[in-house]
Amino acid sequence: MSPMSEPMSPMGEMDCDGLRDSAAELALGVLSGADRARALMHLEHCLDCQKEVDSLSTVGDALFELVPPVEPPVGFESRVAARLQAPDARAPSRSRRPGTGPWWRRAWVPVAAGVALVLAAGGGGWAIGSSTQVPSASPAAKASVSWASFHSPARRGDLGEVFISWGRPVWVFMTVDLGQGSGVVGCFLVEQGGQEVQVGSVNLVRGFGYWGAAVQAPLWKVTGARIVASDGRTLATASFR
Amino acid sequence: MAARRRPDEPLGDEALLSGLAVNDPDAATAFVRRFQGKVFGAALAMTGERELAEEVAQQAFERAWRHARMYDARRGPVQAWLLTITRNLAIDQVRARRRRASEGAGAVEQLASLARGPEMEAVASDSGARLRRALAALPPEQSRALVLAAFRGFSAAEVAEAEGVPLGTAKTRLRAAMSKLRASLASQGVGP
Ligand SMILES: [Zn+2]
């Protein structure tokens, strides 16, 4: 089984037992795709399980504290500095809400769609927020989640993820990390039969961006997702199976 | 997060991170210098290749810089945050490459060396020493599961496949290992 092509199946939130079984994996950052989404949905409202995951996370952290430091190769520092000084490395006016969530809601990693998203002022864009600010898609909705990872023939490995939470409303959340390239790209869902629905757009900064929103447009048998550059080029695709 | 300090006192981790967040080049340099050994060490422990480890370590600093404003001191120290970023990046890398049959054997050696610790045991903290003892005391099947997950990025399903055991068994082993380590940390009031 490849972790990058985990079969998508619509599933609801995990229960406490399932969460306890998966807490160690979640704490070590190895719970993947749909399982992670289902676990995070549960954690949004279960304090006991949050505590369990937090305390196991501390164990994971402690384990890595044991790893002895190793001097990196010569020139490491200047190569990092060059990377940080690249002109498009970070948009100057990029505003993010300060993170308040626990680390397992990793900064750039998708959380379960519709569970921990907060509408940014001005509308249209969304940012990761804390559990206290969950909008209308309440955990009680127990929406099923679809998940797929983005790929591209041009680049090896995972290029991000897309989550769809099939509640009312439907939520879509995407992260993209292409490694390079900046500018606004379109986020599309692909329906069976090939029809595409643009569900949003995101400004990539050095290949990185995330986006999420409630989707009002009716969706029918979504089979995949596509990230498209302003010139129409396909940058990454994902398929739900 | 602004630090008050005497002129001869080095800046705290959080103050450096604040400097990083506002693009202060001196703070950025100091930040990288302070943590590069730990970050590279963790990346190397997970990838096993210096070249790939450097790429992961560079990405980790870049990501830390991008997300410096999202750091939350209430969640833990800067170094733990940075190592979490490093681990996540390394997991993505090792997942994109593997799997070799030899993973299991190498993993056990890795754990053994972690449990032995550095030559200079004096530098290890109390909690570190307790954790090492707990690691050394784990049954072999539990330590394999733990190392495959923590350092190789295996999910429980992948551990089960690698070990030829049912998924439930792999999950149980992983959970048991983590619980024992947690108990060792908690034994003297350290940790939650
Ligand atoms: Zn629970």
Describe the protein.
Chain A contains 4 helices and 10 strands. Chain A is of the alpha+beta class and 241 residues long. Chain A has a domain at 123-239: Sandwich (Immunoglobulin-like). In chain A, strands 3-4-5-8 form a 4-stranded antiparallel β-sheet, with helices on one face. In chain A, strand 6 and strand 7 (196-204) form a beta hairpin. The two termini of chain A are 14 Å apart. The model of chain A is unreliable at 1-10 and 91-142 (pLDDT under 50). Chain B is an all-alpha fold and 192 residues long. The model of chain B has no long low-confidence stretch (mean pLDDT 81). The longest helix of chain B has 23 residues, at 25-47. Chains A and B meet through helix 1, helix 3 and helix 4 of A and helix 2, helix 3, helix 4, helix 6 and helix 8 of B. Zinc ion (ZN) is lined by residues 16, 19, 42, 46, 48-49 of chain A. Residues 16, 19, 42, 46, 48-49 of chain A line the site of zinc ion.
Largest interface: A-B, 61 and 72 residues
Strand order of the largest sheet of chain A: 3-4-5-8
Class by SSE composition of chain B: mainly alpha
Write the H/E string of chain B, N to C.
Answer: HHHHHHHHH
* Residue share in β-strands of chain B: under 5%
The CATH homology group name of the domain at 123-239 in chain A: Superoxide dismutase, copper/zinc binding domain
Main sheet summary of chain B: none
Largest sheet of chain A: 4 strands, antiparallel
Low-confidence stretches of chain B: none
Order of helices and strands of chain A: HHHHEEEEEEEEEE
Strand fraction of chain A equals: 25-35%
Q: How much is the average pLDDT of chain A? A: 70
CATH architecture assignment of the domain at 123-239 in chain A: Sandwich
Q: Which CATH first-tier class of the largest domain in chain B would you pick? A: Mainly Alpha
Task: Write down the overall geometry of chain A.
Answer: flat
Radius of gyration of chain A: 18 Å
